[in-house]
Amino acid sequence: VVNFTRTFLAVDWGTTNRRVFVIEEGRVARTERDGRGVTAVDDFEAEAAAIRGRFGDLPMLMAGMVGSNIGWRAAPYVPAPAGISELAAGLLRINERTAIVPGVSTTGPADVMRGEEVQLLGAVEAGLAPANALLVQPGTHCKWVEMTAGRVAGFTTAMTGELFALLRKHGLLAAQLGSEVRLGQAFLDGVEEGRKRDLAASLFGIRASKLLGERDDEDAASFASGLLIGSDVAARLETQGHDTIHILADPALGSLYAAAIEAHGRTAHLIDSHAAFAAGIIAIGARNE
Amino acid sequence: VVNFTRTFLAVDWGTTNRRVFVIEEGRVARTERDGRGVTAVDDFEAEAAAIRGRFGDLPMLMAGMVGSNIGWRAAPYVPAPAGISELAAGLLRINERTAIVPGVSTTGPADVMRGEEVQLLGAVEAGLAPANALLVQPGTHCKWVEMTAGRVAGFTTAMTGELFALLRKHGLLAAQLGSEVRLGQAFLDGVEEGRKRDLAASLFGIRASKLLGERDDEDAASFASGLLIGSDVAARLETQGHDTIHILADPALGSLYAAAIEAHGRTAHLIDSHAAFAAGIIAIGARNE
């Protein structure tokens, strides 16, 4: 069996996007993102051959939805608490030089992740976050993760980004939510409203405020984003004592979460999520020797 | 000016549906529902003529979205507190024998209603609810209304039904939420989960529970309905001391809200919403003499 040390291809393979990292001598030599997420791929064997054709005929270690029942093959979840060792031990071998990192599950209450675990463990591995910390990965399905001794100890997923996308595209508020989200007063007003944890009523308020001439549509998307992110932050911080929350996200979305976290009196710390992924998958590959 | 006393046509004219009541000598002689809501109508003059052709060439008093900017003509909102007198004084006259009942607005926080006010005031007028009470009108946009001395004193709208419809039709959970909603243990489990007031996370839990084999898809729609209704009930009852909550709804949806209200230790009382509408519009017409 070939292992994934020093020089290999790492693939962060999600539902709609994919990022290939060429790892040479334990460092990222090159990285490239494209839209070939698992929903765009039928023949994963052919796709893996195409990746090797483009980036080099090397061992390949993948993570993310590629390991789900809509991906190449389903890699059973590893139960939390899970660290580098548990993930390395749970690799799903497709063939001698191709494998998938499993996701992590928890049952109190039921929750799952696939792909995020590599970033999380890598953030600690690379010293980008402490070994005991609260990390958040904003997005369609936002993950809030309690790391203990460098392992994923427990987590909660909120479909905050998906709700925002649904509201922007369908239903009563869609016509009002077309504007770009800006980090300004309307966003912060939304974060404040989010403290009520009363989404269904606060959302209707966006419509009523328009009908009564209380808020311009130009600000409605920013307010709605603040409301959804603010509700998410309020629900999570209610039961979390950490002073600093570490954010793994692109800078635009990361700065919105940072503002909401700071509005709640905590400190936000942004981490480079691609660097974290690379550190995580290199560590998993190395442990698998 | 013709008035709306004793014998006239009353129309409860909403976005997607419409109900015509033939009022003869102050009583409902006949009522009929159809799908000619305001979004299905272009020429309201012609539509009114068609109603008179079908039900009698009588004065016509309308309420609901027909008085909005997507209806026949916009009737300005009457600010709460509002009773029969204020609505009768605020009638929008289309012509000598055709008028629209205005909606009601409140500004702390911003909220609006159109059509519900007639049912609410009618419920008290007909003795179906006390003059000081908390009433709820479940639906796409669920109204919770504080009645004081028989007037609409204040209210909150939650887009509970709309969120459920969006989730059922679009996005990650749609494939799981196809089953019929039943009032059973899964619904009550959802109501319990709704107490957390953490919709975005609880909704993702529906997905995770499926992936981990913890709940059958057959029960997912009932759980999701319980979660959304339960969150709505939990948010409202937190600030409302009424022991009894009066529900204006069709029996199916009304029984779901009743179960959620009772799970919160309050008493639910179902009211016939069509009888309430008729009593309300007859009272408004009579006050307008």
Description:
- 2 copies of one chain form a homodimer.
- By secondary structure, the first copy, chain A, is α/β, with parallel strands linked by helices.
- Helices cover 37% and strands 25% of the residues of chain A.
- Chain A is built from 9 helices and 14 strands.
- In chain A, the strands form 3 sheets. Chain A has a 6-stranded mixed beta sheet, sandwiched between helices.
- In chain A, a hairpin with a 4-residue loop joins strand 10 (133-137) and strand 11.
- Chain A is globular and about 65 Å long.
Number of discrete helical segments of chain A: 9
Main sheet specs of chain A = 6 strands, mixed
Q: Quaternary arrangement of the chains shown?
A: homodimer
Strand content of chain A: 15-25%
Average pLDDT confidence of chain A is 95
Topology:
The structure is a homodimer of 289-residue chains.
Chain A: E1 8-13, E2 18-24, E3 27-34, H1 44-55, E4 60-63, E5 78-79, H2 84-89, E6 92-95, E7 98-100, E8 104-107, E9 110-113, H3 116-125, E10 133-137, E11 142-148, E12 151-158, H4 160-169, H5 185-194, H6 199-211, H7 220-237, E13 244-248, H8 251-263, E14 267-271, H9 273-287
Parallel strand pairs in A: 1-4, 4-7, 5-8, 10-13, 13-14
Antiparallel strand pairs in A: 1-2, 2-3, 6-7, 8-9, 10-11, 11-12
Helix pairs in contact in A: 3-9, 4-7, 5-7, 5-8, 6-7, 7-8
Give a quick rundown of the structure.
2 copies of one chain form a homodimer. Chain A has helices at 44-55, 84-89, 116-125, 160-169, 185-194, 199-211, 220-237, 251-263, 273-287; strands at residues 8-13, 18-24, 27-34, 60-63, 78-79, 92-95, 98-100, 104-107, 110-113, 133-137, 142-148, 151-158, 244-248, 267-271.
